[in-house]
Amino acid sequence: MQRSPGDTLYFGAIGALAGFTMLLLLAPTAVVLIISFTGGITLKFPPPSWSVRWYLELLKSDEILQPAITSLKVAIMATIGSATLGTAGALGIARSKSRLARLLDALFMSPMVLPAMAFGLSLLLVFNMLAVRLSLTTLVLGHTIICVPFVIRMVGASVQQLNPALIIASLSLGASRWYTFRRVTLPLIRRGIVAGCFVAFLSSFDNVPISLFLADARTEVLPIKLWAILEGSLDVRVAAVSGVIVIATLIGLIVAERFGGLGRQIQNR
To answer: Of 70, 137, 238, 267, which one is least surrounded by beta carbons within 10 A?
Structure first.
């Protein structure tokens, strides 16, 4: 069917707007990635020369490696915690239409709605009221709280697509609820759990507000360390770290899409 001039103009404008939006979103990442391969000693675009020296410098820089390892530990523990709590929460409220379920859903989603800095300050005040000293544990708890909503949304989408007849059939054949969960429910919502864990891990690893308020003096995470380095100098190692994170994220996206159906889970939210 031939398009009218009005339709052509409309789709052209939408395409141009979409292209401009993609440019705004991807250009900063592309610039940082390009700068990370500079052979110079400062952050300069375009690079005066090309080299991988700053990636090699990262392997010898304990100043950056230790915070990176700490961030990795926190992200892994927060992902495990949020996957457990988020999956349980999604199973409990995804299909329920009661007022309590809607209230709980709003409560679980509150970390995504509240300003990040305000939420981090609120958690700090709560820990102070409970006389809990800041430590790695408080940092993991804070990250878990902000990651749970992502898991609930992803797993909830999978639960909504789950055929209740399969659960009823399993129970009617004599299987226990725990056996049914392990052998029927869990395999069917596995993709949602994988996608939720991936998003939760990314959210925890590069989180700044919660880490800023809940990390003690002995617990230094990567985002805060990079910010401190940039305050003192335009260190190219920061761009190299960003390059590693970008490349690792792209690989993770491919793996999550292959095994977890991340794209489909996001569309179903």
So the answer is: 267
Distance from C-alpha of 177 to C-alpha of 174, rounded to nearest angstrom:
9
Residue-wise pLDDT for 157-196, tens only, equals 888 888 888 888 888 888 888 888 888 888 888 888 888 8
Q: Which stretches of the chain score pLDDT less than 70? A: 1-7, 256, 259-269
CATH topology of domain 52-267: MetI-like fold (1.10.3720)
> What are the extents of the domains in the chain?
52-267
Q: How far apart are CA 122 and CA 126, in angstroms?
A: 6
Tokens describing residue 102: 């809607």
Q: How far apart are CA 43 and CA 45, in angstroms?
A: 7
Residue 25: Cβ within 10 Å count? 9
What is the CB neighbour count within 10 angstroms for residue 239?
24
Question: CA 238 to CA 43: how far, in whole Å?
Answer: 9
| Alpha carbon of residue 35 to chain centroid | 25
Asked if residue 224 lies in contact with residue 63, where contact means CB atoms within 8 angstroms, the answer is no
